Amino acid sequence: MTPTQLIESVLKVTPSVLSGANIANEIAGHEICESTLGSFIKREADLWYSLLDSDYLKIQCIRDTYGIELCGALKNVVSVAAGIADGLGVGSNSKAAILRVGFKEMRQFIYHRFPYTPPEIFYESCGMADLVTSSLGGRNHKIAVELVKTGKSFAELESEMLGGQKLQGPMTAKELYIFNKHEGITEKFPLFTTVYQIGYEKKDPSEIFNVLVGLKLE
């Protein structure tokens, strides 16, 4: 279940969501950024828009919540993969290939789970923009770089570098692996699976690029 599904089941209300390339300290500094507001109820979307949209925080409204939530979760797994690529010292071409495959797997998984997700969410702030921001310098990316360079586990690096905070990427990769294995679709998500294996099964980080070698045209 996504967070809004859980809230719906317990509180019997329909929440809205806000997600995007929204690094907190940049918003606090009034740097211009965008965010995606997801809601199935137009009057609530209008209300949130009137409260949140400003000269520096620009809000786009989309009639969706579940897909937007999954974008916010899945991009953390891809940002781990991007961090692994940077930790290995590869160039922009290789990293771009990892991001492309990751973005593709994000879409595949979201449509597997929620087939009626509006396609525009992937090109709003909650989709591609959030993925790029997280993969350039988010904490999942930062810790993944150190995973490669130091050989330490995610748990060790969390303790040393995050002051008790937890990484979303590795935990999400584990949940994805469990879900996909249960659904019998693990082979459809080689990047997600490899991130899990590197983080939890001590797979060599360089094997992240094996997902590119076996790709076929569709």
TrEMBL record:
<dbReference type="InterPro" id="IPR006109">
    <property type="entry name" value="G3P_DH_NAD-dep_C"/>
</dbReference>
<protein>
    <recommendedName>
        <fullName>glycerol-3-phosphate dehydrogenase (NAD(+))</fullName>
        <ecNumber>1.1.1.8</ecNumber>
    </recommendedName>
</protein>
<dbReference type="GO" id="GO:0005975">
    <property type="term" value="P:carbohydrate metabolic process"/>
</dbReference>
<dbReference type="GO" id="GO:0141152">
    <property type="term" value="F:glycerol-3-phosphate dehydrogenase (NAD+) activity"/>
</dbReference>
<dbReference type="InterPro" id="IPR013328">
    <property type="entry name" value="6PGD_dom2"/>
</dbReference>
<dbReference type="InterPro" id="IPR006168">
    <property type="entry name" value="G3P_DH_NAD-dep"/>
</dbReference>
<keyword id="KW-0520">NAD</keyword>
<keyword id="KW-0560">Oxidoreductase</keyword>
<dbReference type="Pfam" id="PF07479">
    <property type="entry name" value="NAD_Gly3P_dh_C"/>
</dbReference>
<dbReference type="InterPro" id="IPR008927">
    <property type="entry name" value="6-PGluconate_DH-like_C_sf"/>
</dbReference>
<feature type="domain" description="Glycerol-3-phosphate dehydrogenase NAD-dependent C-terminal">
    <location>
        <begin position="64"/>
        <end position="209"/>
    </location>
</feature>
<dbReference type="GO" id="GO:0005829">
    <property type="term" value="C:cytosol"/>
</dbReference>
<dbReference type="GO" id="GO:0006072">
    <property type="term" value="P:glycerol-3-phosphate metabolic process"/>
</dbReference>
<comment type="similarity">
    <text>Belongs to the NAD-dependent glycerol-3-phosphate dehydrogenase family.</text>
</comment>
